[in-house]
Amino acid sequence: MSENKTVRFIITRQGSADATPYEETFDLPYRPNMNVISALMEIRRNPVNAKGETTSPIAWDMNCLEEVCGACSMVINGRPRQSCTALIDKLEQPIRLEPMRTFPVVRDLQVDRKRMFDSLKKVKAWIPIDGTYDLGPGPRMPEKKRQWAYELSKCMTCGVCLEACPNVNSKSDFIGPQPLSQVRLFNAHPTGEMNKAERLEAIMGDGGLSNCGNSQNCVQSCPKGIPLTTSIAALNRATTIQAFKSFFGSDQI
Q: How far apart are CA 99 and CA 39, in angstroms?
């Protein structure tokens, strides 16, 4: 029965960053256990649309194909998510594929996520080390802290939470929930903590915490179930304390 069954895709296409978007429809033979990525691969192998016209292959990003790299994010039936874990059997048809609009479109479903990576640079989302030689074992992290920090470390930098957030757009400088959660993660690290004040100061100005509207779309859309709003609440408290420290010029508060 599945031999005659087809799956219809309506894909938003765009030839270049400056081109006008348009929709193109594709019909594919159904196969059990198909996901969106396998469908896009089939279209790339045989780029013929529903009218029988040969067209150009679809452009999109992918890498690991197991929801680890975060590269294959796109909007599927109106919801930002990973296309590698989007199973055809669980999607309403026709299946609509669109690029995330929080980021500039490069081509078709491929976007430029530079905005997100620039935000990670702004908040210094890494653990600095002194030199390139072996410094020996670092300080241990208490188990209780490690457990919740591990949840934050699951972030794939996929951009789904930024796409879902109504406050992240072309008219706003808001860095979004993902970089904010990374501030909490790296400030919790025993070595990363030495740059804690610097990271908190970075999110206390324009585009930082004050731009969050608490819509909570981010935590609902995160593929990894990261408690993003919990991080934002914790950072509100941490930045308040940091503001007092900065005002009084004291580290004893």
A: 16
Contact 55, 22 (CB under 8 A): no
Amino acid identity of 26?
F
Whether the full predicted model's pTM is greater than 0.85, yes or no, is: yes
Residue that is written with structure tokens 């081509």 in the block: 107
Superfamily of domain 6-111: Beta-grasp domain (3.10.20.30)
| DSSP string covering 136-169 | ---PPPPHHHHHHHHHHHT-----HHHHH-TT-S
Mean residue pLDDT across the chain = 93
Residue spans per domain, the chain:
6-111, 114-248
| Band (1; pLDDT cuts 50, 70, 90) | very low
pLDDT the model gives residue 2: 53
Indicate if the alpha-carbon torsion angle 173, 113, 85, 69 is positive or negative.
negative
- Termini Cα distance of the chain: 70
Query: Facing residues of 105 across strands?
Result: 111
Domain 114-248: CATH class, spelled out: mainly alpha
Is it the case that residue 179 has pLDDT exceeding 60? yes
